[in-house]
Structures are given as structure tokens and as C-alpha cells.
Amino acid sequence: MLKFIFIRLLQLIPVLIVIITLTFVMVRSIPGGPFSAERKVSEHVLEKLNEHYGLSDPLYVQYFSYLKNVAPKKMDLAALVRFDLKEGLGIDLGPSFRYEGRTVNELIAESFPVSFQLGAMAILLALLIGIPAGTIAALNKNSTFDYLPMSLAMFGICLPSFVLGPLFALIFGLWLDWFPVSGWRAPGGFYWSDNLPYRVLPVLTLSLYYAAGLARLTRGGMLEVLNQDYIRTARAKGLSTWIVTTKHALRAGLIPVISYLGPVIAGVLSGSFIIEMIFQIPGLGRHFINAAANRDYTLVLGTVLFYAALIIILNLIVDIIMVLINPKLKFE
Amino acid sequence: MGNHVFTRSSLLVITLLALTGCEPRKTDVEIATERGILLWANGSEPKSLDPQVATGVPENHVISSLIEGLIAYHPTDDTAIEPGMAERFETNNAGNVYTFHLRDAQWTNGDPVTAHDFDYSYRRILNPALAGEYVNMLFVIKNAKDYYESQGGENPLPWEEVGVKALNDNTLEITLVAPMSYFPSMLKHYSWFPVNPRVIEAHGGMTARNGQWYQPENHVGNGPFRLKNWTTNQILEVEKNPTYWDAKTVQLNSIRYFPIESQDSENRLFNAGGVHKTNEIPLHKIESYKAENPEVIRIDPYLGTYFYRVNVSRNDELADKRVRRALTLSIDRKSLVENVIRGGQIPAHYFVPQGIKGYSSQDYFKYDPEEARRLLAEAGYPNGEGFPHFEIQYNTSEQHKTIAETIQQMWKETLGINIGIYNQEWKVYLDAQSNLDYDISRAGWIGDYVDPYTFLEMFTTGNGNNDTGWSNPAYDKLIYGAPLAGDTERRYTMLNDAETILMDELPIIPIYIYTRFYLLHPLVKNWNPKLLDNRNLKYIKLEPTVQ
Amino acid sequence: METTEMPPVDALLEEETHSLWQDAWFRLRSNKLAFAGMIFFLLMVVICFSSPLIAWITGLSYEEQNLDLGATPPSWSHWLGTDDLGRDLLIRVLYGGMVSIGVGVAATCVSITIGVSYGSVAGYFGKKVDAIMMRIVDILYSLPFIIFVVLLTVYFGRNIFLLFVAIGCVEWLTLSRIVRGQVLHLKVQQFVEVALTLGSKKIDIIIKHLFPNVLGPVIIYSTLTVPGVMLLESALSFLGLGVQPPMSSWGSLIKEGAEKMEIYPWLLIFPAFLFSATLFSLNFLGDGLRDALDPKDSRR
Fold first, then answer.
1. Which of A164, B129, B244, B430 is the most exposed place for a label (fewest CB within 10 A)?
2. Class assignment of domain C26-297?
3. B292 interface with C at CB cutoff 8 Å
4. Following DSSP, what letter does each residue of A208-260 receive, concatenated?
5. Domain layout of chain C by residue ranges
6. What is the model's pTM?
7. Contact A158 C275 (CB under 8 A)
């Protein structure tokens, strides 16, 4: 298994280089630059700005110097824990064009923990709702306990977060006044718990869609498995439903769910633009969209790179879990 | 409150309850009001707080609290001169040399504010290596343009040749290229604000754009407030500056700026008692606020024009003046403004917004479908027959879409022509506009200072912001001549003549004059309508709730 | 696996597949909910796709404005009310349905085709093939989608076909990973090994043994994909790709309605209702199909 992980981590290098290259080509071929604005910057100023940010060098020079800057040069775990990529790995993602005087490293280091916190809570909630709901529905196929959770799940899927978010903010924030309508930290808040009310609505909005998806996939996966012979045999042997379900059925039944979770977790942890805009959350999600919109080249590359690493590692974890679940599979 | 039946009127009740303070739990606004803190939803995150580098309105809102120029914003009158760092000033007889007498004022680090600081600041922005985007504003100073352009070349012009001189610590003399009575008004723009040379030098030097000097731990200013803390995309807080020369006038203890880009979010936050002021109101909510909570809605005139650019260089049809006039005359601006946009905007039958003292505005055309049809027929397209399919491009936004759909429909009904519409992502739209890769393109322009020149200048031949392919020698002559005209009256006449040409040729189709609409808590006092949305923040006051 | 003793495997499988479809259809019909879902969905398709005809008959138009009327709640002359430009919401919702159902179904089919074939090949061959194919998926996941879409519009114009390209390029990724996971798991199961020892060709094994077994998760994930695609369409129109106003789609109508829900609730309620009802019906149909096609069930 260690060898498997090692090889997969080695694969990271060519994959990330391909991603950097493609993204670099893409951001540079898109019309408009970081300094284009409605009130046009005069030619001579633009020239100086480009010079200042190193954009007047030939493209290949910029490309190779970027590659050089983002290549990991050292390893300092203590700094990595603080998301300090510069100290931790020697990765320099460059200055941001949109946020004068800020580096992409800083922007990611301060916004990722926010998105991570929000995303982790949402995923956890989604798992806690989705998997039991799907299992119950599968065990009670075509009865009320199937239709009820599945219909609720459909609502979760049909109501996009740009409807659900404002609706929650309106009902639970504005009308009922149970939770703050937006924000991330309580003004003057001292303890972590002071901020807790600010988490409720965004976490709820974010998790419902995934809870619904998980419930549906779990139900489908479970139904598939419950018909398998070994489950029938286990049942025939008189094992209780609880044991059959948890020990045998869930294992195989969750395979589609686990495959689904890899990309989903990467997506959720790296932040949701819509949720962050609705609830005013200073997370990483808004950088993905805004950086592209602002043609903030370095921030686009930085966030893409970060997300790529995240998704590759999560897909690796998924593959490891798959083998652990199914002993017949080998690490290869 | 849990069992309330929620209707719109109950929303009002809640707001009123919040206003009168009957709620058991105090809202942020109530707490802040008691403590003299203004909570301000300020649109987007400031890009920069460096007056010589920054651009944009949210930036201006913050910078003008931290730094004060020679002339400050007047609390009510846009053209009036409010003394700032300059206690008084005088001009020579010719009107081209201004002498400013500085008051005894301090930077927040205890340094005195001197004429040399201004000299340094102007030298800084005129240094091409800084790449200050508003450097053109300073080209009214004698030799400033030459200085800027000669730097880095063979024979750089020495700074001494430029018309800026610190005669002593308290006296600054500025020599202009020509007499300009509106010069003091220009000084209100932040590109003319001073920075502290010692601080700039300590954080990378004159041309560094590393943003270090204005971080909270380093920032040094001379304004009514000083920077307290700043968390990206969350909050920027300034607090009362005790070393400010007029600190006794400053009413607020602090201002918290929130960068909230979503109109809906800031609206909800306002209604939940989270901010005193929003940046905007979603268009469709204006009516209901007007009807139900008129005390919180503010609609101020704004020095800006919403218009369509017509590309006169791509198609023969649109190069025909009669066609452009037909398009212009067939838009029912009154109906558009009253039924669709509904934000108190003024139908624009001219290009330069009204409200500039001394500049006469008139209607250059009116809504006239008959005449429009006649003109189109004269151009060879009776009832729109044979008229090609052109398209309006706009940058993605609900409002631009609605307006484009409405105008599309008006043209279809009045002229019988089918015009398509399409949206583009912001920077693609800008790019298409500068490359003249469009037929008709939505546009807007907000004045930099209160003068017709900031509107008319851009349509000179080859101007970077012209973007229509239109060119007219007589127009160019008037625009280039106006700054040298000497007295205001002659200058305005020349600009007026230029506008007449523009409105006869119509390379642009004016649609409406902007207003600024936002929600403002009634407890915020001295918040007066200003044409450029700039306020002297030392006068803003919060009146705590009367229990 | 109780079928091991049957001699000619291929013949058996053919017969099985044959009866599988017949069985499936029979069982789908007997599943009332699924059948109702199918009827409703087909009805929506017919109504939405005949909206030009409906517009012609009723004289309503999706683009004709009435600025003096503005936004009005449902009434006799406008059953679903009007939007703030005074346009009839009913006809706009129907036209929107045409766009959204069209895009939703077509793009989902594209993503299923790519996702299932890609995922099963990767999963079945495993090892290096799998590693390379899945790293390609990782790369595609990571590329900045917005920039990709903007580039498409800039270099290829605002073409409805590009909409499918753009959506097709992203939506199959997760599906391919799900299918691959399922195939990886299945291929070491007994019945596949048996077929292998009996000398079936690899491609036959993929088509005859693995496909039916991944159908369940595929159908379920597809019912998640359809709404995703419909909403993605509205996000893409934000970037200038896809249907142009005054034409509408469910996604854009819901988006607009969400912004105005406090003032003009009907602008959200009706499009959202039709959107949800259609998805519900699709979903019941999907569940029914899944049950009907379940290869394990069919042998009993």
C-alpha cells in the first residue's frame, strides 16, 4: 500500500505540470487583461504596469519562471499546517493583481481554512443525513419510509443553492431572526462558539444538496447489494437486518457513494462561490470565480493548482478505500 | 416572533420595531449606533488604499476617510470649496498660478504635513515607474506631461522645471498650463492627495507597489480617521484620528466598511439590522421600499450617463447619421425610466448630466417615432425593410439585460427592425468594445470631477475611451481648445458647442442619467446627496435611539 | 451465481438480455409511480416542445412586452402572471422548458455515453490504462471551467452546440469515476471470472456483464445530472454562452425569480414548480427503470 501511495504521489508531478501548462495557455489566450477596465488605462501606464508585474517578458520566460517558482523546494510540516506554502514547501505562487500588495500564497492561506471549516461541516452533515436516509429507504423499498426521504431528497436536488440560500436567509435570518443573515465572524466575538450561529445557514444550504445526492446514491447502491446472493444467504442464516446491513451490505452498497465523494469533497472543501456570495463568507470559493473574472492570472493558476492537488489526493484516498472495502482488489 | 404570519407589512413592523428598539435582542446597528460606529456596506473589496495608485469608488470611500487633500469635500455643495490641508489659497492675476497656504496639521505618526510632502506626492505619481492610473489628471500642471514622458529617456526633464514648488514648509505653489478656474475642484480627487514621504521610503520607496505602507500596522495618514484593522474580503475599520487638525468636528468614533458584492445580501443585512448603509438597492425593490419604507431609501442624483455606443466604422448602415438618429429618436426613455428601471433616473436627451453649475444643458432631441420612421425610410429602409440584423452587446447583468430587451422591443415596434441582443463576460465585453468588435454596445460613464470636460473629452479622435470609431475635426478642435480658453464662460460655450456636434452626429445614444439609490438608516445624519458620491466623513453623525 | 451450469454462455446471455428488456418494460408498466412519472414527463415534453404552436394559437409571445402593465400576479388573462416587463410568464415558462428539457436530456445523454464507456474501459483494464485515464480525469476536473467557457464563446461564437460541448466536458467526469469504481469492484466478482474462464471476449464481458450491473448507479447519478445540467445552462448564459434573451430557460427564470422572490413570488414559484415536478417525474421514472433493469431481480 505504501508503494502504491508513493507511486500515486509521484504521478502528481507530471499531472500538475500538465495542469499548469494548460491553465497557463488558457488564461493567456482569454481576451482582456488584469488591467483592462471601463475607464481605460492609458497605453503608457499599461506598459509600465505590465513591466511592474513582469507581464512584458516573452510568454515562455514567464511560463518557466512560474514553473520554477511553484516547484517545491523544501519541506517544513509545521509551516504547512498553517497553510504557509512558502515556508512549508518553498512554493511561491506570485503576487495577486486584484489585491495589491497581497500574494496568492497569503490569499489561499487565509481563505482556505474558512472554506475548509464550512465544507467539512457541510460534508459531515450531508453524510449524517444522506447515508442513513438512503439506507432506510432501501430497506423499506416502496413504502412510506422510502418515498418520504426520497421525495425530500428530490427537493434538495431541485432547489439550487441560489434559491435555497436566500430563502433560508430570509426565513431563518430575517423573519424568524434565529440566525444571522450573513457574515462569518461575530463582531467582537471572542470564542469560537460566538461564531457558531453564523455557520448554521451556510452549512445547511451547502449540505442539503449533497445530502440529497448521497441519499439517492446510497439507496441505489444498497438496493443493488441487497439482492445479491450473499446477502440473501446471510439473511437466511438468520442474521439480524442491522448486522447484515452494517457489516455486509453497506460495504458494497457504498461503492458508488465513495466514488462520488472524492470529487465532491474536493469541491466542497475548496469553497462554493454562490454560498460565499450569499452569506458573505471570505472563503476560497469566491477566488475561483473572481480571479477568472478579474484575469488575475497568478490567482487563477494558484487556485487551480491548489484545487488540483486537493482532488488528486482525495481521489487517491477514494482508491485506497475501494481496495480496503474489497479484499479481492489489489493496489496496482 | 416565531408565530408571526409573515407578510410584507410584518417585515415593515419588524423594521420599525428594530428602529424603535423594542426588540429584546439588540441588532448590530443599534449597538453600533450607541457606540458611534458607522456600518457601511461598501460594494467591493478595495484594491488599493494608495491615493496615487487607486482607482474606483469603494476605494475612494475609504481613502477619503484616511487622507485629506489640499481641498476637502464640501458637505452639501459639489462645486463649493471646503478647506482641507490648505487653509486658504490665492491665484495670480492671470489665473494660472495657485499659491496654497497650508495649515498646521499632522500625520498620524506625528510628522507635520508640509508643502514638501505634496511636492513629493506629485513627483511620485508623475514618476512613470509607479504606473499611477490617474496620472493624466496632473497633466494640467505646467511641464508635468513633459516630465512624465521624458523620464527614462535621453534627456529627462528635471523636476525643478515642473510647476510644483514648495516655497517653504507651509506654502505650495502650483503653476498650470493655462488659467483654470475649476482647478481647485479637481484637487478633490484622490490622485491629488498627499502621502507621507518618510513612510513611503521606509516601505520600498517612491515607486514600490507592494502595498506595504498602507497595511494597518504601517499606515500613516492625515485624515479625520486612521486605519485600525483590515481583513481581506471581510471588514476594514477606521477609527477617529485624534491628531487630525479638526478632530473636534469628527462625529463618528469609527467606520466599518464591509465589502459586500451581492445586492441581495446587503439588502437582507440592512433589513436584519446589520449595516447602516447599503451600496445599492436591487432595481425591482425600489418601488416597494418607496411605498413601504420611504424613510430608509435614498435616491441621489449622480454625475453619470448610461448610453449605447454605436460602431460607426464597421457597417455602412450604422455609419449613416440618419440611421443613428432614427435609433435614438425611437427610444421612449420616459417609459423606460418610469416603468422598467424605476430608480428615479432622468431620461437623457443630452450627454452631459445636469447639475454642473454654469453649464447649460438642453434637450438635443426628443422621443419622436414619426420622425424616426421618416429618417429610416430616408436612409433607404422604409418600415425597416432590408435593414440588416445588428446586435446589442452588453456585459452580463440583470439590469443591462432588461434595458436591452426593452430597447430591442421599442426598435422592433417603432422602426420594424430586428435587433439581436447578447451578453458577454465583463472583460470580453471591454475587449470587444476597444477592438470595435460590436455593432451597438452598452456603456456608462461617471465623471471624475464636476465638469463637462470629463464627459466630452473621450470622444476626441483616437481617445482610448472613444471606442466608436467616430472622429470629427471640429469637435476635436473645440475639446482641445477648451482647457486653454481662460475664463469659465468661454470654456463652457466651447464645450457646449462640442456637445451639440456630438448630439447631432450621435455616435452614442444617450439613454438616461444615473442616480445612486441605496438604503440609509434614518439615524445617520448629515448624509447629503452628492453628485459624485463623495462625502466629507467628518460631518457624518449617528443619532442614538431615543429610548 | 446459480447459472454456471448452463452450457453456451453467449446464447444464454443473449436470451437473457432479450428477455431482460421485455421483462423490464413489463415491470416498468406495473410500477405505477414510475409509469405515472413517465406519462407526466412525456406530457411536459410534448407541451413544452409545442410552445411555438401554443404561442401561435393563444397569441401570447415570449418577447412581447407591456411596460405599462409590468409585473402582475396570476390572473385570467395571464394564468401565471407577468414579469416586470409585462411579458406573459406561462408562455415564457413553456419556452424555457423546451430549452431546459432539451439541454438537460441531450447533455445528460452525452455525459452518460462518454462517462460510462470511459469509466468501464478504465475500470476493466485497470493498471496503467486506468492510471492514465484517471489522471486525465483529474486534469479535466482541475482546469478552470469559466475560462474554458469564455474561450469557447470567444473563439467559436455563441453557438448552442457549444453549450453541449461545454456541459459535456464536465458532467461526465464524476460519472466516469463512479462507473470505474463499480467496474473495478465487479470485475473481480465470481460471475465475471466465470465468463472469462469460459473464453468470452473482453469487450463482450464489458457489454454483457458489466454494463447491466453499472446501470443502477448510472441511472441514479443521471437523475442528479439532469437538474445539474439545467442549472449549469443558466450559469453558462451568464458567461455569454447558450440561449440569448429574450428567450428564457428554466434555469434563468428560476435565477431571476430567486432574486425577486420577496416582491414577485410567482416569478419563482411557477418556474421552480414545473422544474421540480419534471425532475420528480424523471426521478420516479429513473427509479422504476433501475428496478426494472436490475439484472439480479430478473432471474427470479
1. B129
2. mainly alpha
3. no
4. HHHHHHHHHHHHHHHHHHHTSHHHHHHHHTT--HHHIIIIIIHHHHTHHHHHH
5. 26-297
6. 0.89
7. yes
